[in-house]
Design brief:
single chain; mainly alpha; 2 domains; 14 helices; globular
């Protein structure tokens, strides 16, 4: 059954990649939404707040495990590094992710006074991201080999299992810890079956590789890792500040109104993912004008999505979210509108960062993300303590706007220099 699902013969691979990749994006966006809905209605608002925080911490830890390698791996069009090098690098980074996650939760238990219940729930949710992170190195190789559809189907299989098993077990047990533990065991089994099927049909040869390649990958991807880590910290910084100065109920409400933000960003991510290899080819071949056209096309797409989201949010956002989550969110309408606008800016930042990575401008990205993270770390907690959720979302939107403008300007400057260099080389060749 899995064989037919992953490798159905006679399909249009390109069309299949777009369709399944879009479905994977929707599935990813729905995971935390469905978890929060189920927990809010069956258990309570405070537990939903813990779930929201768990996904925020898990996503941040996942950046350690992935280490920014996926985009580097997919755009390694000259196959400078073998799959084995990427695989063993991932083993190292996932181990680091586990150590950091355990250390952080221990710190929170001691310093923030997390209860044993809250710590256990957070630990089980974060463990889900370990499975996802390990899968990602195989998904990257599938995409590199032109089978993004296979990678997307693997993601959907695990994501669907994650949601379905949790929903069934919590309906039966009404116990978040038992349900999360059962769900974790279920997705590990599904992941093993999917990887076994895919490896039997595609060349994922894993052999011992030299330490030099692994060391090079860790060094070269360090700026990408730091940038991605800071990006996820930036997007979730309000949640960490709320966890410090407010309670789990407020955390849940913020998570409910923030879902459109991540929905826009995730959908945008899955829209442009299939074009990464082509984008890398255009840049390596010096077709800078095509790179710029792709950039401006994506800006139009994101702007359109954001306008639609703002329109829908203004008329239907609060009533729908209140009904879905069983919580009165009337007092959060203005905050929600600002967050939707921020979602559009985040989507642009995500794509601009990918373009800069393709241009191998990782250092410029890293400097900007570090500066943004430092500002976030310094300001969010006092701002939210003084002005509440509104102060936090205004700060969030302002930082994202500055960041998006910075990256756009940098891309235009870098592509302009490349085009000028190519033109100059052509003139010199003609003169010779």
């Amino acid at each position: 059954m899995l064989q037919r699902f992953f490798f159905r013969p006679g399909i249009n691979v390109s069309r299949s990649a777009y369709c399944w990749n879009t479905l994977a994006g929707i599935s990813s966006a729905l995971e935390s939404v469905l978890f929060s809905i189920i927990v809010t209605r069956l258990i309570g608002l405070a537990d939903a707040g813990i779930i929201t925080l768990g996904f925020a911490i898990g996503n941040l830890l996942a950046t350690i495990g992935k280490y920014g390698v996926r985009t580097f791996q997919v755009t390694d069009v000259n196959c400078r590094y073998s799959f084995s090098a990427y695989f063993y690098t991932r083993i190292i980074t996932v181990t680091a992710m586990i150590v950091c996650g355990a250390g952080y939760l221990l710190f929170c238990s001691v310093q923030k006074g997390y209860t044993a219940y809250k710590t256990t729930v957070l630990l089980l949710i974060c463990a889900k991201f370990i499975v996802e992170t390990f899968e990602d190195v195989f998904a990257g190789e599938c995409q590199k080999k032109g089978r993004l559809d296979v990678a997307s189907k693997m993601f959907i299989s695990r994501s669907f299992s994650f949601i379905a098993v949790f929903a069934i077990t919590i309906l039966i047990t009404r116990n978040v810890i038992l349900s999360a533990a059962t769900t974790l065991a279920g997705i590990v089994i599904v992941e093993a079956l999917c990887l076994k099927t895919i490896r039997s049909n595609m060349d994922f040869t894993i052999v011992r590789t030299g330490k030099a390649d692994i060391r090079e990958l860790l060094i070269k991807c360090a700026p990408l890792f730091l940038s991605t880590f800071c990006f996820f910290y930036m997007t979730n910084a309000p949640k960490y500040a709320i966890d410090t100065v407010m309670n789990d109920e407020v955390q849940a409400c913020y998570g409910f109104i923030a879902f459109p933000v991540f929905a826009i960003e995730l959908l945008n991510n899955f829209i442009y993912q299939p074009t990464l290899v082509t984008l890398a080819g255009d840049w390596v071949s010096g077709r800078t004008e095509k790179v710029r056209k792709r950039l401006h096309r994506q800006i139009l797409i994101v702007s359109g999505l954001t306008v639609l989201a703002l329109t829908g949010a203004w008329f239907f956002g609060v009533p729908i979210l209140s009904a879905v989550f069983g919580t009165d969110l009337t007092g959060y309408k203005n905050e929600m509108m600002i967050l939707v606008l921020t979602g559009g800016l985040l989507a642009m930042i995500g794509y601009f960062t990918t373009v800069l990575i393709t241009m191998r401008e990782s250092r410029a990205i890293m400097i900007a993300y570090l500066a943004d993270s430092a500002v976030s770390l310094a300001l969010y907690t006092p701002v939210i303590r003084a002005y509440g959720i509104m102060g936090g979302v205004l700060l969030y939107c302002g930082l994202c706007f500055v960041f998006a403008v910075y990256e756009y300007i940098w891309i235009m400057i870098r592509s302009g220099k490349s085009a000028a260099g190519k033109q100059g080389a052509g003139e010199r060749t003609h003169e010779d």
